Amino acid sequence: MLNMDFSERLVIETEKVDWIKSPAAGVWRKPLEREAKESGHTTSIVKYDAGASFSTHTHPLGEEIFVLEGVFSDENGDYPAGTYIRNPPNSHHAPFSKEGCVILVKLNQFNKRDLADVKLNTNVTPWLQGYGGLKVMPLHDFEHEHVALVKWPANEVFNPHRHFGGEEILVLSGCFCDENGEYPKGTWIRNPHMSQHTPFVHQETVILVKTGHLPLAL
C-alpha cells in the first residue's frame, strides 16, 4: 500500500520522482497512491515510450485519464495532450502510443453507478466564468464528485473554504499557492475531507481539480 490514509494531506512534486518500470515494456510509472501492486485503487503518472503498448485489460471500477503530453491511443481513437477520458466500470481496452505520451491515470475509483463514457478534448472546450477572475471548465459530475479545469489569472486570490469529500489537484501550468506553500507545475496535492485552505497565485496557473470523492471519515 502507498499513501492510502485519506486523512493525510499529501503534496508530491511529480517531476522530481523517478520513473519505475511497469510490467509492459516501454511503459513507466510514478505511483502517487496505490492499494496493491497491480490492482485496486491507484493513482499514477504514466509514461509510454514511442511505440509502447499495454495488453488488453479490464477496469472493474473504471479508469480516469488526463493526457499531459503527446498522444495516447487505444482501439477507440487517438487522444492528444489535454484530453480527459473516463472509461466506465468493467470497460476494457488495449492502450498504446505511437509517438510517446505522459498521462495521469486513476484506476478503480468510480462509483459502480457512474457509467459515463467520456472523451473530452479540453483544447476545444469553452471556458466558463468562475469566481472572481477564474475560468472553469467542468469535465465530469456525479453526485458529490466534481472534476474540472480551473484557470487562474495572475494575482488571483480565492476565498477560504473547506473540502467536503476532499480535494485533489494536479498543477498543469504555472504555480499554485496557499498558506501552506507554493506548488509548481507537476505537483499533485491531496487535501482530506473537511480540510481548509486559502488558495492564490502570483502568475497565470491552470489546475486539474477533483473534489467530493474521498472517504468522509478522518
Description of the structure:
- The protein has about 220 residues and is mainly beta.
- About 0% of the residues lie in helices and about 50% in strands.
- It has no helices and 22 strands.
- It has strands at about 10-15, 20, 25-35, 40-50, 55-60, 65-75, 75-80, 85, 90-95, 100-105, 120, 130, 135-140, 145-150, 160-165, 165-175, 175-180, 180-185, 185-190, 195, 200, 205-210.
- Strands 2, 3, 4, 6, 7, 8, 10 and 11 form an eight-stranded antiparallel β-sheet that branches.
- Strand 13 (about 135-140) and strand 14 form a beta hairpin.
- The chain starts with 9 loop residues before the first strand and ends in a 7-residue tail after the last strand.
Topology:
Layout: E1 10-13, E2 20-21, E3 27-34, E4 42-48, E5 57-59, E6 63-74, E7 77-80, E8 83-87, E9 91-93, E10 101-107, E11 118-121, E12 128-129, E13 135-142, E14 145-152, E15 161-163, E16 167-173, E17 175-178, E18 181-184, E19 187-191, E20 195-197, E21 200-201, E22 205-211
Antiparallel strand pairs: 1-19, 2-3, 3-4, 4-10, 5-9, 6-7, 6-8, 6-10, 8-11, 12-13, 13-14, 14-22, 15-20, 16-19, 16-22, 17-18, 17-21
Structural class: mainly beta
- Cα radius of gyration in angstroms: 17 Å
Number of strands: 22
- Tell me the distance between the termini: 18 Å
Order of helices and strands: EEEEEEEEEEEEEEEEEEEEEE
Overall pLDDT level = 95
Largest sheet: 8 strands, antiparallel
| Strand composition percent | over 45%
Stretches with pLDDT under 50, minimum 5 residues: none
Key descriptive features of the protein:
218 residues, mainly beta, eight-stranded antiparallel β-sheet, seven-stranded antiparallel β-sheet, 51% strand
